[in-house]
């Protein structure tokens, strides 16, 4: 079953605005990862945050993790048209072998 | 570095046919996985492997077989294709511990008619 649920399902903004996507999950995790998928392409790893971390930055990306609420958020600052894509959160469980469980994704449209 | 290479990119099968989706990685990653992506469903795990000779089932394994005889290759076999297996299939790999995240292939778009 799906572990993560992204919110919103779709987001439409103008270039220069910030985009925030949220992810909730159900079970204990080792880490949470965010991926981007451009239409018709494979997924690209963006950022990983471990369960003992609360916030992480990478370029224009900021990820937060609240393990007490089992939730995470991805903030993209100063969005560009090239950021248009689907964004997925994925969790890696803490029970041994490394597999990822994905949410259904947020479709982000950034208009020029 | 080629990363994760999947072949073919597109395939049309008739119901009942069998085929093998190929996946190869050149990063010496221990972990490899197969996912399928359907509209509105996100990615669902089919099978995974934590090393050569070791495989296990994911969330939706029925109708698929895997084997891992080498670190580099992780083929996915459809035994008797069904229309419900129409999907986009992604192979992914990561190193043990997964600290760098997973590397995904570009996908195989399969249609079963």
Going by helix content, strand content and strand pairing, the class of chain B is mainly beta
Q: What best-fitting shape of chain A do the alpha-carbon axes yield?
A: globular
Q: Which class best fits the helix and strand makeup of chain A?
A: mainly beta
The greatest inter-chain interface is formed by: A-B, 25 and 30 residues
SSE arrangement of chain B, N to C: EEEEEEEEEEE
Strand runs of chain A, count:
11
- The Rg value of chain B, from CA coordinates, equals 13 Å
Oligomer: heterodimer
Structure, described:
The complex is a heterodimer of chains A (112) and B (113). Chain A has 112 residues and is mainly beta. Chain A is 0% helix and 58% strand. Chain A has no helices and 11 strands. The mean pLDDT of chain A is 92. Chain B has no helices and 11 strands. The model of chain B has no long low-confidence stretch (mean pLDDT 94). Chains A and B meet through β4, β5, β9 and β10 of A and β4, β5, β9 and β10 of B.
